[in-house]
């Protein structure tokens, strides 16, 4: 993920929630906003509704790995937030990867 930075500031998250576009599928919710930069910024969230800390960390790891594989194919210049839904705790890696590809294609961010 050379051209990808992490979203960390609460104000950045709030801007994307307020002004961005959202899409969802069974395992993930995607908020994204065009920033017209030369790089992407990404945030991964798993709330307490997903489960205890072990389950939430697993969900974030699955999302990060799925995004890492396709990060070179994602259009540049966007802020992305991936949010894990409660169903992700029963999902396998392949399920999350398919959901990631589906939501990126649906948003037309995948080249």
TrEMBL record:
Please give a single GO biological process term from the UniProt record: tRNA 5'-leader removal
GO CC aspect terms:
ribonuclease P complex
**Which top EC class is named for this enzyme in its record?**
hydrolase
Q: Keyword check for NADP, yes or no.
A: no
Molecular-function annotations in GO: 3'-tRNA processing endoribonuclease activity; ribonuclease P activity; tRNA binding
| InterPro entries recorded | Ribosomal_Su5_D2-typ_SF (IPR020568), Ribsml_uS5_D2-typ_fold_subgr (IPR014721), RNase_P (IPR000100)
**Which keywords fit this entry according to its UniProt record?**
Endonuclease, Hydrolase, Nuclease, RNA-binding, tRNA processing
Family indicated by similarity: Belongs to the RnpA family.
What does it do? RNaseP catalyzes the removal of the 5'-leader sequence from pre-tRNA to produce the mature 5'-terminus. It can also cleave other RNA substrates such as 4.5S RNA. The protein component plays an auxiliary but essential role in vivo by binding to the 5'-leader sequence and broadening the substrate specificity of the ribozyme.
Q: What is the protein's quaternary organization?
A: Consists of a catalytic RNA component (M1 or rnpB) and a protein subunit.
- Put simply, this protein is called Ribonuclease P protein component
Recite the lineage of the species: Bacteria, Bacillati, Bacillota, Clostridia, Eubacteriales
């Amino acid at each position: 993920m050379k051209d990808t930075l992490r979203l960390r500031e609460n104000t950045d998250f709030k801007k994307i929630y307020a002004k961005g576009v959202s899409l969802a599928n069974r395992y993930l919710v995607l908020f994204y906003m065009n920033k017209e930069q030369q790089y992407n910024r990404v945030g991964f969230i798993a709330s307490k509704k997903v489960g205890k800390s072990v389950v939430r960390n697993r969900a974030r790891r699955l999302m990060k790995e799925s995004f890492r594989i396709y990060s070179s194919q994602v259009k540049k210049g966007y802020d992305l937030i991936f949010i894990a839904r409660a169903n992700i705790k029963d999902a396998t890696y392949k399920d999350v990867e398919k959901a990631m590809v589906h939501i990126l294609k649906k948003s037309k961010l995948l080249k």
